[in-house]
Amino acid sequence: MCFYYCLTKKNPTQLIENKVIREEQLSLFDNTFLVNGFEHPAMPVITDAKPGEIQFLRWGIIPHWVKDKETAHSIRNNTLNAKSETIFEKASFKHSIKNKRCLVLCSGFFEWQKVKGKKYPYYISLQNDEVFVFGGIWSSWADTESGEIINTYAVITVEANELMSKIHNTKKRMPLILEPAKALQWIDKNSTEKEIREMMKPIDESKMKAHTIKKFMPAKPDDSSNPEIIAYYHYPELIDFISS
Fold first, then answer.
1. Going by C-beta distance under 8 Å and a sequence separation of 6 or more, which residues neighbour residue 142?
2. Is 82 exposed, middle or buried (0-12, 13-18, 19+ CB in 10 A)?
3. Domain membership flag for residue 237
4. Which of 30, 44, 46, 169 is the most buried (most CB within 10 A)?
5. Are 93 and 80 a contacting pair, CB within 8 Å?
6. How many other C-beta atoms are found inside a 10 Å radius of the C-beta of residue 237?
7. Which residues partner with 208 through β-bridges?
8. Which pLDDT band holds residue 219 (cuts at 50, 70, 90)?
9. Predicted local distance difference test score (pLDDT) of residue 244
10. CATH code for position 130
11. In angstroms, rounded to a whole number, what is the distance separating the alpha carbons of residues 160 and 201?
12. Does any domain span residue 241?
């Protein structure tokens, strides 16, 4: 699954060259070294409704059919991710995958490996340290009490590639990472269901890298601005099968 990720402005070359974002748009957001999904933060997202713009949507999708604020609040921790294999059937996601797709800007993400009953955190990114995008879906929900329109998103997950199977060795899932050249096709309203399904595959593990990091408490507020959270940390008890 994917509940925590990182977003910095470092090295967005490929996204700029493929016209996913423009260089001047980097000033719209700050470096955030720990994005905690359970806090439902507003993060930079590019939607199919406004493909040339960066919008700020809240993580944890609220389906348009939710009737009240209490239900909206309770559902969000369960809709941070959308499973690719069932996304066209699940009530919370099927409208969005067909009609409301988005790109979630990201620099890397966090996952835990379970070894002998203990969990060890990893930071995973692309080999070239490029900013990339998750494939996502979004929704607009109207609060009937206040009239406020709340735009939210979910990150799609797919079956883990070989690298992620070693790290996320319990559920063996990973976020959908889109190649820069394919990103705009994801939010193209003319993309067919067949094309969408074909894009929901794990990225080649050769394009990724990972290293262990120091254990942390996601609830600590200072982690979001602390670059040390993604720094390499050695655990002598672990077998080093992943290069740091």
1. 64, 148, 149, 150
2. buried
3. no
4. 46
5. no
6. 9
7. 126
8. low
9. 40
10. 3.90.1680.10
11. 9
12. no
